[in-house]
Structure formats: C-alpha cells, structure tokens
Design a protein that fits this description.
The complex is a heterodimer of chains A (about 475) and B (about 300). Chain A contains 21 helices and 14 strands. By secondary structure, chain B is an all-alpha fold. The longest helix of chain B is centred in the N-terminal third of the chain and has 33 residues. Classes of the chains: A alpha/beta (about 475), B mainly alpha (about 300). Chains A and B meet through helix 1, helix 3, helix 4, helix 12 and helix 20 of A and helix 3, helix 4, helix 5, helix 6 and helix 12 of B.
Chain lengths: ~475, ~300
C-alpha cells in the first residue's frame, strides 16, 4: 500500500513537472507571440545603459542596430508579453517609481492612455525629423495630447481586406484586385456580395470569420470620439456596425468564430469544419498591414501541412478605410538619460536609413549577430513591414514587386496598396479609454446577436459595464 | 556569568520574522487599501483627491457591482453545498468500519488530483472543450444528440454551470480529505459503545460524528467562504476575463481587477470593491463562528449527575 502510494506520488510529481515544461495553451491576442521575458544583459560597464521595455521582440532588432551606430551605448532590452495584459500591468505598476525604464513601447490599445497621462515626456523636438520624412499624420497624431508630442511610431498600420483568389473567381468570375474593389467597394456592396457567396457556395463559404473583424472598420470611421466633454457618446457609425454584424449573423454570412481563436485561424488555411465535420471556407479577412506577415502568412498552412492557401490571397482597400494596431515609442518622464532616449526614438522611428533597412529585410540574423553575438538565432526582421514615412515608402515600394510576400498574394505588391490606403487614415478620434469602452461592447453585442437580449438591453448592459470601469464618466 | 541569562525574551525573536512579514505584507496593504478606497487615485496620474465615500456611493449605485456580489454568492453556494454533500458521503463511506473499502489512499488521491492542476490549465482545457468548434460540439452533433452546434461559451447558464462544476470538481477532494481526517480522529470506542447500546448508522452519524467534527466543519466552511468570495482564476480565464457572457460569471474579484485594469487604472475604486468584499466576508465568517460556537455553558442535567 505504502509503496503504491510512493510510486503514484512519484508519477504525479513527474507528470506535474512534465506539464510544467509543456507550452501553456495561450490564447493569442497579439500578432507576435513572445515566449518568455528576454533580458539582454549589459556586457560592459563602461557603456551608457539605456533601458527599453517592450511587449514583442521586434524592437530588439532595432536596439541592436542602434548599438552599431552608437557603440558607446548598451541597450538593455526587456520583453514582457502582453498576451494576457502582463505588460500593461507591469508598466502601470512601476509608473512613478524609480524602476521605470527609459523608453517604453506602447501598443495601439493603450498608447493613448499613456500619452494622456502625466508619465510620458515631451519629445516635440523630434517633430522636425517627422516632417522631413513626411510621416503619415496619424502616426504622430496618436502620440499627441494637448498639442504635445509624446510618442512616435515606426509603422503605419492602415487596414485592408484580404480575400481568396480561387473563391473570388468561382463566385464573381474574377480575382483581379481592381475589379474586386469595385465589387466590394462599400458596405452595401459587401453585404450583397456576402449573399452571392452564400448562395453560390450553398452556405459552405462564409464571407467573414468573426463579427469582431468588422469593429475596427466602423470605429475608425466615426465622426465623434467615445467621450465628448466627459460624456459617453455613441456615433451613428457604431449603430451601423451593430446593424451590419446582425445582418451577417442572422443571414449566416459569418462563421461565428472568435478573433484570435482556433476557428478564426482555421479559416486562413481551409481547415475550418463545422461540428458535423463538413468543411467550410472563409472568403475574406479584414487585417491591417502587419496582419499579412504576422497573422495571415504564418497561419496559411495547416498544422499538419496538408492544407495551404499560399498564393491564393489578394488584398484590396475594402469597403472602408481604417487602421488597426501599431507600436509607438515614448520616453518616461523619470528618465535620467533624456537625450539618449530621444536619440533612440529618433533612430527607431524617424531615421530614413533605419526605416529602409527595417522594411527591406536588411536586418537579417547574420547582420545582427555581427553587432552583438548574443542575439538569439530567431531574431531578425523579414522584409515587408509597412513603415510610417512616406519618403521611405515611396523609395522602396517597387522593391517588393517580386518578393516572397507578393508571391503569397499571387503576384500582387501589397506595399503599393497600403501606400495608397495610408494617407486616408485618421486617428484623431483615438482616446485613452477607447480600448476599454470597445471591449465592454463585445459581450453585450454577442448576447444581442445570440438573441438572448434585445437591442435596448444590450445598450444598458454596455453602459453598466462602462460605468463600472470609468467611475467619473457621465453616462446617460 | 551566564547564569542569569533570561530565556523568556527569546520567544519574541523567534516570532519576529512572521510579525515583521505580516506587518509589511499583510497589515500595511490592508490599511493602504482602506486609505485608497477613500480617494479617486488612478495609476495614470500623479495627483489624487480624497473623495471620502464617493467610491462607495458609486459602487452601490452600480448594477455591475450588485451583479458581481450576487454572482459570487450564488456561484459559491452552488458549488459549496454539493461539495459538502459529496464530501460527507464519501468520507462516511471511506471511514465506515463495516464497509471496509479498499485502497482508500488511492481514491483519496484521485479525488484530490484536480486540485493539483493549475487553474489556468483547467480553464483553458474547458474553454477548448466547449468552444463552438470544439470537441464537445463535434461529439454531440456527430452522434446525433443535437442538430446544430451550441455556442456554449455565449450561453450564460452553461458557463455558470461550468464554473460551478469546475470549482466543485477541484475542491471536493480537499474537503473529503479534511472530513475524513476529522472522522478518523474520533475514537472508535465511541462507536463501539454506541453499537453495544443498539444505535443505528444514522444515529451514530447524527450524535457522534457530526458533533465531534464540528470544529473541522467550521474550518472548511470559513476557508471555503473566504476562497469563494475571492473566486477569480477560473471565471476570469474561462471566458474573456470580464465575466462574459452577460456578466454571468462576473465575480467580486474580477470586478475589482477590471477597475484596476481599465485604461486609467482606477485603484481607488478598485480598493473600494476590495474593502466591501473584505467587510462582507469578515461579517459572515464571524457570524458562522458565532452561530456554530461550542456551547460550553450548557447546564448539566440532574439525572446525569445522580448516576
């Protein structure tokens, strides 16, 4: 008996160890999934140390490149994942203490609340570089509060619509991006096209994967922000979004998947199947610039390699212009190295050479290893990220004509398409509270779509949820 | 020379680490929370004002808070009552002298195992099982139980049931072990005497087992209450971390965390939630102690003394 107990407990302890080693089932919220915090320790004590915090390992590439041009600086890079909000929590909790880093990376969802807070320094003297490089206005407008520049981004993140070429040919007789833009050019057309897709596929192809796909589009095209004079305001565009997703749900145009979850990804590589095992397809995805290299491309082949949609995609502007995501860099007010921190941000976001290298794939692993041998083997920047400077974009667009990314898109140069969409993006309505207010709508909206509550009940639930998170907001 | 060395003060030295730790990590945060709950402090601004009872006023006017409090109570009671019931049944079976069940240790361990798993792993497991494209839907559709997949994750009653089930499943083993320990500690001679006097199983349970395990029951009740009032990980991880669908699994602690985690980090308002939950739990716990206290001063009946 006792021996049995000992054996069983050993097995149990062993299994716990094993499960502790296994990768936890993460539900990705962000395009780039870092594995664990990586701290690049300083090797030499003589160098000036610059502390940089970020939520992906992207900026580490630039940090290493920065060390090449600034040999006397050691950038200590700390990566904290934001899968479940660890990064935001950690950063919030260190605000105002002497443990804050010098430079912080801020994601679109929370950049505005930092820009509006007391904790980011004024870095307005960098604006002259932004003007020189003709940065897309929304790139620096997001980083502004009360006329003060507090953050800059290296990316511009206009949104687009990706669709399946083979399915387009089947249902619309063409897969040409120009003609498809004509067919899907506004939301009435998009809804009509959804009906065509449903009819011709016998309900086996969905127009979109999830209702979450629509939200950024409509929110980006509002005319008033969520909060006007301290009062919660609902723009007509929000109502339109709700009407649209209701149409898509009720008519079965939507695959009822959830963004960033398996069904959503399965549609990208044609392995979606309903509960009875019938294969289903998804016609289009609303994704921004980064969605192509970080989301669509990596998920375009199924896990077992049996199904792939590579080369079967095309990208168009879609029914509405919008922007989604992006990473901004700001300097913490507490920093003792203000000039160096500013120089780092200038280099990362407003340096023509760096942005060109970044977007054209110059920063290979070998390139980075030559500067710092300790760089991890998987650290590099593939070509194709869409940068925020019009000067750079114009210069490099042609270089993507025969790239791997154009191959993925059946020969289409997406860079050019994004360049056309970027100037029409407007982020002036962005506020710090956006993310929380918008997230509060998800659950009531889903209950409404499900039919368990009425439209009025949905608004009430949403208002209660917003009131709960923003005690000082006036809500009528 | 050392003869007069006093040993009585050494005790203080030995308890000092705990006392210091408690003061810094236990008492100070509690007092700080009380202070914060009277302010409008956010993490995103350097200045704050003392607003006295405004946070509490807003809190009690807020339907979400009331929902969270009722939810927490309902979720706790719905898992605690069956948990106690099953645990009682199992421990009576396992400690019963007549049944002599074999492999008690193995059973006990199997029941306890769910408790060893990480809550996050369990939540992720159940989330995948019950998702719209998940195996449960595949099974019930393919085997013809239902015609169309059910969106469990968006059905309030399903998610509630799931939270209750997971909590029950994770904790009934723990409760069983405690009850069994308490039951085996009862001297066998009492039961033997009762048997000789012709008592039945039910009578023995009601008049020997129950009164003697009361202290352990109070312990289970209070710890489970404290744990239940702070229920967080499973409901937080099972859906979107906001108590979806329809606030059906929104608990006090999720509510508090949402206030802390909102874009401004309203720690003043979050502290107010914490304080209300703290007071509520303390009052109920004290009430339990009071109601189930040992009644030492019961007058001894004359008849007993005469014998």
């Amino acid at each position: 008996m006792k021996r049995l107990f000992v054996i069983l407990s050993l097995i149990l302890v062993g299994s716990m160890l094993l499960s502790a080693c296994g990768a936890p089932a993460a539900e990705p919220e962000t395009p780039v999934e870092p594995e664990a915090p990586v701290v690049d320790e300083p090797e030499s004590t003589e160098k000036t140390v610059l502390n940089v915090w970020s939520f992906t390992n992207e900026i580490l590439t630039m940090a290493v490149a920065f060390e090449k041009t600034h040999p006397d600086v050691d950038v200590v890079y700390t990566m904290i994942p934001m899968t479940n909000g660890e990064y935001q929590t950690k950063l919030m909790a260190t605000l105002g203490t002497d443990e804050v880093p010098d430079v912080v990376a801020l994601e679109a969802a929370f950049v505005k609340s930092y820009v509006e807070s007391d904790f980011l320094a004024d870095i307005g003297d960098l604006q002259k570089y932004a003007d020189e490089l003709k940065m897309y206005p929304f790139v620096y407008e997001v980083g502004m509060a009360d006329g003060v520049h507090k953050a800059y981004a290296y990316q511009a993140t206009p949104g687009a619509l990706f669709y399946r070429r083979s399915l387009a040919k089947e249902y619309f007789g063409t897969d040409d991006p120009v003609e498809m833009q004509e067919i899907l050019g506004d939301f009435d057309k998009y809804i009509a096209a959804a009906e065509v897709v449903k009819e011709k596929s016998g309900g086996d192809t969905y127009m979109v994967s999830s209702n979450g796909d629509f939200q950024n589009l409509f929110f980006a095209n509002r005319e008033q922000p969520w909060v006007v004079d301290g009062k919660l305001t609902v723009d007509p565009m929000v109502n339109e979004m709700i009407e649209t997703v209701k149409i898509f749900r009720d008519n079965g145009y939507e695959a009822r998947a959830t963004q960033w979850q398996e069904g959503w990804f399965a549609g990208m590589n044609d392995t979606l199947a309903d509960a009875a095992g019938n294969p289903k397809k998804v016609f289009s995805y609303f994704l921004p610039t980064w969605g192509l290299p970080y989301v669509l491309e990596p998920n375009s082949t199924s896990a077992d390699g049996s199904s792939t949609t590579k080369g079967d995609w095309a990208v168009i502007e879609g029914p509405l212009p919008y922007q989604w995501g992006g990473t901004w860099l700001g300097v913490m007010e507490e920093t003792k190295k203000m000039d160096l921190a500013k120089e780092f941000i200038r280099f990362c976001t407003l340096d023509e050479e760096n942005l060109t290298n970044w977007a054209t794939g110059v920063y290979t692993n070998e390139y980075l290893k030559a500067i710092d041998p300790n760089v991890p083997d998987d650290q590099y920047q593939a070509a194709g990220d869409f940068v925020g400077s019009q000067v750079v974009v114009e210069k490099i667009t042609a270089s993507f004509d025969d790239s791997a990314m154009s191959e993925f898109l059946g020969g289409q140069n997406s860079y050019g398409g994004f360049a056309a969409a970027a100037p029409s993006v407007n982020a002036r309505l962005m506020q710090g509270s956006d993310d929380a207010i918008q997230r509060a709508l998800n659950d009531p909206l889903n209950s409404y779509l499900e039919g368990t509550i009425t439209l009025d009940e949905m608004w009430d639930l949403w208002k209660d949820a917003v009131r709960n998170e923003f005690p000082d907001l006036i809500i009528e | 020379m050392f003869k007069k060395l006093k040993y009585d003060h050494y005790g203080y030295l030995f308890v000092a680490p705990f006392i210091i730790g408690f003061l810094i990590f236990g008492l100070y945060p509690v007092l700080n929370t009380v202070f914060l709950s009277f302010t409008d402090r956010t993490l995103m601004s350097r200045t704050f004002n003392i607003t006295w009872f405004k946070n509490f006023q807003l809190l009690f006017a807020d339907k979400t808070f009331i929902t969270a409090v009722t939810n927490t109570w309902e979720l706790w009671l719905m898992n605690f009552i069956p948990q106690m019931g099953i645990a009682f049944l199992l421990s009576v079976f396992f400690t019963n002298l007549r049944l002599k069940i074999k492999g008690v240790g193995v059973w006990r361990m199997i029941f306890y195992m769910p408790n060893l798993m990480m809550a996050s792993a369990i939540a992720a497991l159940f989330f995948s099982l019950f998702s719209y494209y998940g195996p449960v839907n595949q099974f019930i559709v393919r085997s013809g139980f239902v015609a169309e997949a059910i969106d469990f994750i968006r059905k309030p009653s399903w998610m509630r049931g799931l939270v209750v089930f997971i909590q029950w499943w994770m904790w009934f083993g723990q409760t069983t072990i405690l009850l069994m320990a308490a039951m085996t500690a009862i001297p066998v001679s009492l039961y033997e005497a009762a048997l000789v006097d012709g008592a039945g199983s039910l009578q023995m349970f009601l008049h020997i087992t129950l009164p003697l395990i009361k202290p352990v029951m109070i312990y289970i009740l209070v710890t489970s209450l404290v744990g239940g009032m702070q229920m967080f990980d499973i409901p937080y991880l099972l859906t979107d971390g906001r108590g979806s669908p329809g606030n059906s699994i929104l608990t006090n602690t999720i509510n508090m965390y949402m206030k802390f985690h909102s874009s401004k980090g309203h720690i003043g308002a979050a502290s107010a939630v914490g304080l209300v939950v703290f007071l509520m739990t303390s009052i109920v716990a004290l009430l339990i102690f009071f109601l189930l206290r040992e009644k030492h001063d019961e007058p001894v009946k004359n008849g007993n003394r005469e014998k």
